[in-house]
Design goal:
By secondary structure, the protein is α+β, with helices and mostly antiparallel strands. The protein folds into three domains: 133 residues, 2-Layer Sandwich (Beta-Lactamase), CATH 3.30.450.20; 171 residues, Beta-Lactamase (2-Layer Sandwich); 168 residues, Reverse transcriptase/Diguanylate cyclase domain (Alpha-Beta Plaits, 2-Layer Sandwich), CATH 3.30.70. The chain has 15 helices and 15 strands. The strands form three sheets. The protein has a six-stranded antiparallel sheet with strand order 8-7-6-11-10-9. A hairpin with a 5-residue loop joins strand 4 and strand 5. Helix 5 packs parallel to helix 10, helix 6 packs antiparallel against helix 10 and helix 12 runs antiparallel to helix 13. The longest helix is centred in the middle third of the chain and has 31 residues. The relative contact order is 0.06. Keywords: Plasmid.
């Protein structure tokens, strides 16, 4: 038995005087005083003191700690421990161990109370075992305080980890997976999903935890947005569903609880919902869980909002503000990605086929000089729109500066050069029809791997071929026929070979 235990400290204090006296009369007086102090300790402190006979029948049951268990002092005397504590089998098992001669400590839960208890054999003056002795100290408030402190620490650590994850600038899917893992280490039970709205359905952006097979298949298919809107998520308020408020189909799949917290209400194209699900014997959401999930939803909402803002700023640095096409920086980054991740100046992987088309718009200076720069800007926007409409969806159009454009064409080689120039002719005709009859364009095509395996060299070669066409045009006054002379395209853009 540990003398540092609060209960044993009380007992040691009240027993010491009679053990220190050798005078019988004084010893009797001290014993009575000791008994009074013992009674005072048992009445003042949350202690339970008991003894049993060799069969496990209580011979003593005292202490103020009995009150929290709904027991009166002495009421258990004459009754077997298995009868009194039928709902606390660990108490019964511990008394049996003490009757078996063991001395030990254990923490036991009786009802909603927690006791730190010490058990020992009870011996007579001849050291013969005559039963068992035990003393328990009610530590419920201490345990609850420690539990609350641990939960607060875990919550703080989880939110700190969320903040760190969000600061990495990673893509939303990767951030979502790391964020749910951090929450899962605290919540432990059930599973977590970060839903992202796509049209009229929510699809899982990330999942964490062990989902039952039926629930996993159901959630991977997505959930109708109207299903969540029924709970008022569009108002920005979270909901915590219990077995009584869950829809019937969820209960059939074994779900017992669901917490749904929207992250970005009002932005349907980017709407996110943080969800936690519970199984088994779940009955209610604890205040700690509610607070953690609400704080996590706010942290994630702020983090994803910041990510969208930074991504918008980044996109702005890659976008030509006049035409909304990608600019030179975007071309350099994305052309490198298209060519196996090679940056400009690095060798490309053999076998890849990508066309790079450089285009120069003829006639912009004349429009600026005769009709003003506002009209010239309108021409640049119209030609950009015509180029986007004349090429395939996977072809990417960029405006580098002034009247220079570039189109990156996945899966296009030298054999398609005629078709590509036809597409430029279509864009020219569309622009003329939009109110710019005097414009024309010069273009040059270079292809990987036929012409070069280096991204920068591809750009240089296509640009040089475009200027060769432009120079020949000046020498002959024109290269492209005027609008009425354009031949029909050899092949529709949808028929261009796919990568």
């Amino acid at each position: 038995m540990t003398l540092g235990d609060p209960a044993w400290q009380h007992l040691r204090a009240v027993r010491r005087p009679d053990s220190e006296s050798t005078d019988p009369e004084r010893a009797g007086s001290l014993a009575r005083a000791s008994e009074e102090r013992l009674r005072f300790a048992l009445a003042a402190a949350p202690i339970v003191l008991w003894t049993t006979d060799p069969e496990g029948v209580f011979t003593l049951s005292e202490g103020q700690g009995l009150a929290v268990l709904g027991h009166d002092p002495g009421a258990a005397v004459g009754r077997h421990v298995a009868e009194v504590y039928a709902d606390a089998p660990e108490v019964v098992a511990n008394v049996r161990r003490a009757l078996g001669g063991e001395t030990f400590e254990a923490t036991v839960t009786v009802g909603e109370r927690v006791f730190k208890a010490s058990y020992a054999p009870l011996r007579d003056a001849q050291s013969e075992q005559i039963g068992s002795l035990g003393v328990g100290y009610d530590v419920t408030d201490l345990v609850r305080a420690e539990h609350a402190a641990r939960q607060a620490r875990e919550q703080a650590e989880a939110l700190l980890e969320l903040s760190r994850v969000l600061e990495t600038g990673a893509e939303p899917g990767e951030v979502a997976r790391s964020a749910l893992a951090a929450l899962g280490r605290v919540l432990r039970d059930g599973w977590l999903v970060l839903w992202q709205r796509e049209g009229d359905r929510f699809l899982p952006l990330a999942l964490h935890g062990n989902l039952p097979p039926g629930a996993r298949e159901h959630q991977l298919r997505g959930i109708s947005a109207s299903h969540y809107e029924e709970y008022g998520l569009g108002t920005g308020q979270g909901v915590f569903l219990t077995p009584e408020t869950l829809p019937g189909d969820a209960r059939l799949r074994g779900v017992r609880g669901a917490a749904l917290l929207p992250l970005a209400p009002g932005h349907s194209e980017q709407e996110l919902v943080l969800a936690a699900y519970r199984l088994g014997s779940f009955e209610r959401w604890l205040p700690f869980e509610r607070e953690l999930l609400a704080a996590a939803s706010r942290t994630l909402s702020a983090g994803f909002g910041r990510w969208r803002h930074l991504r918008g700023l980044e996109e702005a640095t890659r976008t030509d503000p006049l035409t909304e096409l990608g600019n030179r920086r975007a071309l350099e980054l994305e052309l490198g990605a298209e060519l196996g991740g090679a940056e400009l100046g690095r060798a490309l992987h053999p076998g890849e086929e990508v066309g790079v088309l450089s285009i120069d718009l003829d006639g912009l200076k004349r429009v600026n000089d005769t009709r003003g720069h506002a009209r010239g800007d309108a021409l640049l926007r119209e030609f950009a729109r015509a180029l986007r409409g004349s090429f395939r969806r996977e072809d990417r159009v960029y405006r580098l500066s002034g009247d220079e454009y570039v189109v990156v064409l996945p899966g296009v080689g030298p054999a398609e050069a005629g078709v590509i120039l036809d597409r430029v002719g279509v864009a020219v005709r569309l622009t003329r029809a939009a109110g710019f009859p005097g414009i024309d364009a010069s273009a040059g095509l270079a292809c990987c791997p036929a012409d070069a395996r280096d991204a920068a060299e591809l750009l240089r070669l296509s640009d040089r071929r475009m200027y060769e066409v432009k120079a020949a045009k000046r020498a002959r006054w024109r290269v492209f026929p005027r609008a009425a002379e354009f031949p029909a395209p050899r092949r529709a853009s949808a028929d261009l070979p796919r990568p």
